């Protein structure tokens, strides 16, 4: 008759992506070295894994939320380390990035406990036990609506319930395409969020959109019967920041109630004439660097921050609260220097009281929702040349994971404050 | 375009996708009007197309917040500090077909409950009301990674549930009661806690040449054997969990069948009163013989508990539980109107104490609790439509129980059942077993 059965549990077994979980093991022998392992097969069929080395206590238990990992892809007391420290398994192709494109299904992870402290060979031996956890970007009841009107392409996520809800225009960066997961998660927190497609990787640079496209998208959000038209904000990451700042500063049609800008810059505004932009970029081509692994570093291309006001968004014109989120190890864009320049410009203009800047030490460029893997470098197709490179985004994994977790909470608090709690502008004007 | 000045209330429930036995850790209302009377309402549409609802009355604090996990519910379909009250107090909406029972057939999909917040204290008229906020939560009988396999092997019909991982696992043979049909949700939920389970289809009578016959004991022996020989099952760590007829069969088989030697038994709402060494058909015959003992309550609902009373002293008329070799957990509702579970449990204790194996027996006896002791947070069913297995006659059967106590019993007995199964199936070598013939 065999000995006691090891019990492995994960709670909740079905959680939202930004919800912490607790992995626990029971009925091990006391002081037993074990490895907790997490395996995920992505939508593009690559395998990702993370693992931590633990030792059971006198009662034969391991608590992933309380105990320290002695080694593996993460160390220390890290209850979510099994998710954020995932990386492609050995032998995978280079430059992978983990992104969920279909938000109506969950990310599925297989969590296992192995005897001993292992660093490899997880698939060559059976674990002691396994459990499966689902991680969802979409809460039940959130409605997903495909948008294709007035030339605007996007996906609108409406929270469950009668509303009305505040709205969000959500924009990713230069990689283009339509990426929905962050909007889905925002809607799961009560914001009617539209993920906007504005850079088509398949289309040529001549068909790029002007500020009118974003104004129309903003209006479509405002006009939805379940959206509060005077409570629509904008969130942008990377190039999406340039869009957000340009709209906030110059548009008379799209007046965001607040703005969140992640890993971006006010250099260059998107209403800069295209040929002027190409001239500036070409001038800076020589400043592109490579690291020892041939990953491409673009951060110096806008350094030093230009003093020419025509090449920067005039942030002194912004009238809404602005939250900047940056990593100080951003190797893709000089976001920290840009943030300093933004602060100076706003100081001079007298609207600096609207600005909050969060700079995360040793975090990189891709500051994503929490508990998702840190991507230090990944494959990228340069939009105007169609060249394939591996871009260095930067960041150290643990610091970057902390930045993702902390910044997401701050973003939600910021959005709740300005889109839900604060009285409307109309009533403020009366004070 | 809409522009609003008043804050928009926000409802938050976590986990939003939970197992059916999982408690909510967060259930909060924010930004409601302060110090206001509020109603939280739950709505569930069953697979049969009936609507079930529940409601609770709360008063928000000065910040417009309510915490359903901590605050007192002052009215509605439940009261007191009851975070899960909106689930277990669900009942059919006014105008529904009478005598319904809520049971999930397709365990591959969740129950979806719409939870909404309303201004004021209300107990009716919800479809016509516009809520302040609402959301949806899912309740699953199946954890992710648990596989469902339809079984027809060795003449045995049922559904197997296999947890993820290499195994081997301890196993549970799961047997429901009368009314026929294969019901999987309890087996699926037990499997979600790390056991291989087999929900056994055994009630369906066979009809041939005008003769109706029920399965013989060899059918159960074959089912037990299927579990034992499954590559992912630890063959010496198999329990039987039964309710009603399933409990009674489990008792008889464990004592009289040499091929069925479970590591432990969990018996809900059953009895040892049956022809000793008999079959399922013999138990039905006993009931038919005593059918004159049928009683009716003031609503003409059928009370069948007397059909097995009084507990006989003749040993040939009951399972000799003094010969039981494994730990036994009896779960009894003291208001069971369908089977004399309480009297049977008392008699079994006497028999086992006399025999010297009384240390194997644990009894959980719950006041004001009826016959249908389901997994936690299932609505209490006090009476429902029932069709007998053999004759296919329709009745409204009184199961018994008062809702708050019955639902408390469902929750308490479930965790104790899982602890009992884990203790006797998972932890180390088998605990002291008296030598068996």
UniProtKB/TrEMBL annotation, chain A:
<comment type="similarity">
    <text>Belongs to the C/M/P thioester hydrolase family.</text>
</comment>
<dbReference type="InterPro" id="IPR029058">
    <property type="entry name" value="AB_hydrolase_fold"/>
</dbReference>
<dbReference type="GO" id="GO:0006631">
    <property type="term" value="P:fatty acid metabolic process"/>
</dbReference>
<feature type="active site" description="Charge relay system">
    <location>
        <position position="330"/>
    </location>
</feature>
<protein>
    <submittedName>
        <fullName>Bile acid-CoA:amino acid N-acyltransferase</fullName>
    </submittedName>
</protein>
<dbReference type="InterPro" id="IPR014940">
    <property type="entry name" value="BAAT_C"/>
</dbReference>
<feature type="active site" description="Charge relay system">
    <location>
        <position position="238"/>
    </location>
</feature>
<dbReference type="Pfam" id="PF04775">
    <property type="entry name" value="Bile_Hydr_Trans"/>
</dbReference>
<dbReference type="InterPro" id="IPR006862">
    <property type="entry name" value="Thio_Ohase/aa_AcTrfase"/>
</dbReference>
<dbReference type="GO" id="GO:0006637">
    <property type="term" value="P:acyl-CoA metabolic process"/>
</dbReference>
<feature type="domain" description="BAAT/Acyl-CoA thioester hydrolase C-terminal">
    <location>
        <begin position="211"/>
        <end position="420"/>
    </location>
</feature>
<feature type="domain" description="Acyl-CoA thioester hydrolase/bile acid-CoA amino acid N-acetyltransferase">
    <location>
        <begin position="18"/>
        <end position="149"/>
    </location>
</feature>
<dbReference type="Pfam" id="PF08840">
    <property type="entry name" value="BAAT_C"/>
</dbReference>
<dbReference type="InterPro" id="IPR042490">
    <property type="entry name" value="Thio_Ohase/BAAT_N"/>
</dbReference>
<dbReference type="InterPro" id="IPR016662">
    <property type="entry name" value="Acyl-CoA_thioEstase_long-chain"/>
</dbReference>
<dbReference type="GO" id="GO:0047617">
    <property type="term" value="F:fatty acyl-CoA hydrolase activity"/>
</dbReference>
<feature type="active site" description="Charge relay system">
    <location>
        <position position="365"/>
    </location>
</feature>
UniProtKB/TrEMBL annotation, chain B:
<dbReference type="InterPro" id="IPR006862">
    <property type="entry name" value="Thio_Ohase/aa_AcTrfase"/>
</dbReference>
<feature type="active site" description="Charge relay system">
    <location>
        <position position="244"/>
    </location>
</feature>
<feature type="domain" description="BAAT/Acyl-CoA thioester hydrolase C-terminal">
    <location>
        <begin position="218"/>
        <end position="425"/>
    </location>
</feature>
<feature type="active site" description="Charge relay system">
    <location>
        <position position="336"/>
    </location>
</feature>
<dbReference type="GO" id="GO:0006637">
    <property type="term" value="P:acyl-CoA metabolic process"/>
</dbReference>
<comment type="similarity">
    <text>Belongs to the C/M/P thioester hydrolase family.</text>
</comment>
<dbReference type="InterPro" id="IPR029058">
    <property type="entry name" value="AB_hydrolase_fold"/>
</dbReference>
<dbReference type="Pfam" id="PF04775">
    <property type="entry name" value="Bile_Hydr_Trans"/>
</dbReference>
<protein>
    <submittedName>
        <fullName>Acyl-coenzyme A thioesterase 3</fullName>
    </submittedName>
</protein>
<feature type="domain" description="Acyl-CoA thioester hydrolase/bile acid-CoA amino acid N-acetyltransferase">
    <location>
        <begin position="28"/>
        <end position="153"/>
    </location>
</feature>
<dbReference type="InterPro" id="IPR014940">
    <property type="entry name" value="BAAT_C"/>
</dbReference>
<feature type="active site" description="Charge relay system">
    <location>
        <position position="371"/>
    </location>
</feature>
<dbReference type="GO" id="GO:0047617">
    <property type="term" value="F:fatty acyl-CoA hydrolase activity"/>
</dbReference>
<dbReference type="InterPro" id="IPR016662">
    <property type="entry name" value="Acyl-CoA_thioEstase_long-chain"/>
</dbReference>
<dbReference type="Pfam" id="PF08840">
    <property type="entry name" value="BAAT_C"/>
</dbReference>
<dbReference type="GO" id="GO:0006631">
    <property type="term" value="P:fatty acid metabolic process"/>
</dbReference>
<dbReference type="InterPro" id="IPR042490">
    <property type="entry name" value="Thio_Ohase/BAAT_N"/>
</dbReference>
């Amino acid at each position: 008759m065999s000995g006691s059965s090891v019990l492995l549990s994960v709670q909740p077994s079905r959680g939202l992506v930004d919800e912490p979980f607790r992995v626990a093991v029971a009925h091990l022998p006391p002081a037993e070295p074990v490895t907790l392992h997490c395996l995920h097969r992505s939508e593009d069929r690559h395998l990702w894994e993370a693992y931590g080395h633990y030792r059971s206590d006198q009662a034969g238990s391991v608590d992933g939320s309380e105990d320290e990992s002695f080694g593996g892809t993460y160390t220390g007391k890290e209850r979510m380390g099994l998710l954020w420290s995932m990386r492609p398994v050995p032998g995978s192709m280079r430059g992978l990035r983990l992104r969920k494109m279909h938000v109506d299904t969950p990310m599925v992870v297989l969590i296992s406990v192995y005897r001993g402290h292992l660093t490899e060979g997880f698939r060559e031996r059976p674990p002691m036990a396994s459990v499966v956890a689902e991680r969802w970007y979409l809460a039940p009841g959130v409605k997903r609506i495909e948008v294709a009107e007035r030339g605007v392409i996007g996906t609108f996520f409406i929270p469950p319930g009668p509303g009305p809800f505040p709205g969000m225009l959500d924009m990713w960066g230069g990689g283009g395409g339509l990426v929905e997961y962050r909007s889905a998660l925002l809607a799961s927190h009560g914001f009617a969020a539209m993920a906007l497609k504005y850079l088509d990787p398949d289309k040529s640079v001549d068909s790029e959109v002007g500020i009118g496209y974003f104004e129309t998208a903003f209006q479509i959000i405002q006009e939805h019967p379940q959206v509060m038209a005077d409570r629509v904000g904008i969130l942008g990451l990377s190039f999406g920041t340039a869009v957000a700042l340009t709209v906030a500063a110059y548009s008379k049609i799209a007046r965001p109630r607040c703005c969140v800008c992640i890993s971006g810059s006010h250099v260059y505004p998107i209403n800069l004439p295209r040929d002027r932009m190409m001239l500036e970029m070409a001038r800076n081509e020589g400043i592109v660097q490579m690291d020892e692994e041939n990953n491409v570093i673009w951060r110096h291309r806008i350094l030093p921050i230009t003093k020419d006001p025509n090449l920067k968004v005039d942030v002194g014109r912004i009238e809404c609260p602005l939250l900047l989120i940056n990593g100080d190890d951003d190797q893709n864009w000089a976001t920290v220097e840009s943030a300093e320049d933004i602060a100076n410009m706003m100081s001079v203009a007298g609207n600096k009281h609207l600005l909050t800047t969060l700079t995360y030490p040793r975090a990189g460029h891709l500051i994503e929702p929490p508990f998702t893997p840190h991507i230090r470098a990944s494959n990228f197709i340069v939009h105007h040349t169609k060249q394939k490179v591996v871009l260095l985004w930067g960041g150290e994994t643990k610091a970057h994971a902390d930045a993702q977790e902390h910044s997401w909470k701050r973003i939600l608090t910021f959005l709740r404050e300005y889109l839900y709690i604060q009285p409307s502008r109309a009533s403020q004007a009366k004070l | 375009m809409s522009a609003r000045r008043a804050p928009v209330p926000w409802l938050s429930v976590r986990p939003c996708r939970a197992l059916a036995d999982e408690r909510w850790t967060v259930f909060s209302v924010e930004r409601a009007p302060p110090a206001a009377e509020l109603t939280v309402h739950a709505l569930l549409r069953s697979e049969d197309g009936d609507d079930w609802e529940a409601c609770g009355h709360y008063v928000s604090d000065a910040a417009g917040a309510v915490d359903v996990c901590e605050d007192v519910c002052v009215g509605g379909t439940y009261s007191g500090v009851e975070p899960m009250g909106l689930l277990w107090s669900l009942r059919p909406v006014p105008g529904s077909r009478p005598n319904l029972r809520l049971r999930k057939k397709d365990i591959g999909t969740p129950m979806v409950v719409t939870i909404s917040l309303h201004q004021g204290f209300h107990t009716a008229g919800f479809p016509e009301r516009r809520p302040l906020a609402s959301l949806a939560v899912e309740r699953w009988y199946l954890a992710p990674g648990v596989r469902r396999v339809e079984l027809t092997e060795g003449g045995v019909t049922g559904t197997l549930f296999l947890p993820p991982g290499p195994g081997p696992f301890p196993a549970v043979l799961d047997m429901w009661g009368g009314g026929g049909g294969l019901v999987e949700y309890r087996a699926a939920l037990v499997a979600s806690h790390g056991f291989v389970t087999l929900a056994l289809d055994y009630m369906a009578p066979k009809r041939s040449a005008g003769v109706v016959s029920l399965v013989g004991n060899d059918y159960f022996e074959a089912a037990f054997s299927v579990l034992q020989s499954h590559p992912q099952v630890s063959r010496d760590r198999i329990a039987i969990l039964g309710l009603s007829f399933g409990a009674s069969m489990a008792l008889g088989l464990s004592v009289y069948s040499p091929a069925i030697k479970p590591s432990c038994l969990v018996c809900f709402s059953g009895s040892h009163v049956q022809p000793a060494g008999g079959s399922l058909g013999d138990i039905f015959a006993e009931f038919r013989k005593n059918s004159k003992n049928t009683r009716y309550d003031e609503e003409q609902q059928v009370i069948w508990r007397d059909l097995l009373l009084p507990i006989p002293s003749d040993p040939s008329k009951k399972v000799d539980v003094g010969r039981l070799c494994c730990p036994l957990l009896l779960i009894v509702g003291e208001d069971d109107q369908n089977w004399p579970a309480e009297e049977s449990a008392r008699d079994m204790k006497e028999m086992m104490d006399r025999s010297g194996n009384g240390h194997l027996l644990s009894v959980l006896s719950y006041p004001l609790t009826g016959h249908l002791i389901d997994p936690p947070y299932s609505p209490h069913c006090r009476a429902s439509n029932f069709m007998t297995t053999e004759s296919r006659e329709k009745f409204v059967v009184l199961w018994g129980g008062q809702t708050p106590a019955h639902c408390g019993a469902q929750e308490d007995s479930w965790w104790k059942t899982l602890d009992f199964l884990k203790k006797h199936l998972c932890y180390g070598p088998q605990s002291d077993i008296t030598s068996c013939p």
